[in-house]
């Protein structure tokens, strides 16, 4: 997990998130994944799997589409990250950390080995989860 503590004016400030980032021109989701993981961690992914896609809506002007992957084989040495502090966290303890409320939904789906899913998370500007839809069905908050 990446504890986002190093950047000012960071929407993820003080939260724990998975590593990742934005696409470069022409990149596929897999290429973006491998580049971002290497840039942020120093690790080269050897085996990974696409698990879902999340539509993240925040306030009136932020919409991001997150491609979720898990990896179970890599090589390299963990390095210092300029976006925050990297740490290995037991899967059962992730939701005890300060994470986005909606992240708890996809972490649970990943833990349950759910089939590929589409998740929509809508947040208010004060970070409150206002809507959660899994594969088109609203989940009660």
Mind explaining what this structure looks like?
The protein has 141 residues and is an alpha+beta fold. The chain has one domain: Nucleoside Triphosphate Pyrophosphohydrolase (Alpha-Beta Complex), CATH 3.90.79.10. It is built from two helices and eight strands; from the N terminus they run ββαβββαβββ. It has helices at 29-41, 101-111; strands spanning 2-3, 16-17, 44-58, 62-75, 85-86, 117-123, 129-134, 137-138. The strands form two sheets. Strands 4-3-6-7-8 form a five-stranded mixed β-sheet. The mean pLDDT is 95.
What are the key terms here?
141 residues; alpha+beta; Nucleoside Triphosphate Pyrophosphohydrolase; five-stranded mixed β-sheet; 2 helices; 35% strand; globular
